[in-house]
Amino acid sequence: MNPLLKADTSSATSCPDMRTRMSKVLLGFAVILLSACAAKGPEMETVDQVDLERFMGPWYVIANIPTFLEKGAHNAVETYSLNDDGTIATNFTFRADGFDGKVKEYNPKAFVTDEESNALWGMRFIWPIKADYRIVYLDDDYTQTIIGRQKRDFVWIMARTPTISDGDYDRLVSFAESIGYNISLLQRVPQRW
Questions:
Q1: Per-residue pLDDT tens digits for 84-142
Q2: At residue 150, does pLDDT exceed 60?
Q3: Whole-number pLDDT of residue 127
Q4: List of residues 6+ apart from 171 with CB closer than 8 A
Q5: Which CATH number does the domain housing residue 177 bear?
Q6: What's the half-sphere exposure (Cβ side, CA atoms, 13 Å) at 161?
Q7: Taking the model in full, what pTM does it have?
Q8: Whether 101 and 29 share a structural domain
Q9: Domain range spanning residue 154?
């Protein structure tokens, strides 16, 4: 046998449980990786095409699985406007914990990341992080929409009016459930104008 190809086993014999520990570490990494992939779920499809100019303007948040910023929000409205450079200025306002609560305002910037559909955005609250933002449902009249995320952690059902019919609400909730959301976490956002 060629002495250059002969494996050096002296360290392996001096530490007999090294292979066992390495196997456990590798198994741990594999479990973490598989768990992350399983949690991701199937790719969340967006709508085929968004006319950005029609999508701009105010959208009332009808229901959501809220982020920590939105818990207790009343009269939540997200308004979009196109910037000259193609980015989207976003103005998100609501009253905290009641209709007479303090007005909160956030102004993230959105970046269209799929220019073929205009339905996949990166939403930046803090540089350089761009949060996943997907237009997963949009009716033909541009009056009702659902914004989702690949992680299926947060979702927003929005409309051009502060209220929608119970039938429309139920249909939109069913759609959110059909794409993998746990709708037991969904909360109606109180709207009174």
A1: 999 999 999 999 999 999 999 999 999 999 999 999 999 998 888 899 999 999 999 99
A2: yes
A3: 80
A4: none
A5: 2.40.128.20
A6: 7
A7: 0.79
A8: no
A9: 52-188
Q: In this predicted structure, what is the pLDDT of residue 55?
A: 98
| Same domain assignment for residues 117 and 58 | yes
Domain count, the chain: 2
5 lies in some domain = no
Give the Å distances, CA to CA, from 58 to 2, 8, 65, 101, 152.
Answer: 75, 69, 19, 21, 24
User: Would residue 46 count as lying in a domain?
Assistant: no
Strands 120-124 and 57-65 turn out to be unpaired
- Kindly state whether residue 193 falls inside one of the protein's structural domains: no
Q: How many CA atoms lie within 13 A of 101 on its CB side?
A: 19
Higher pLDDT, 156 or 36: 156
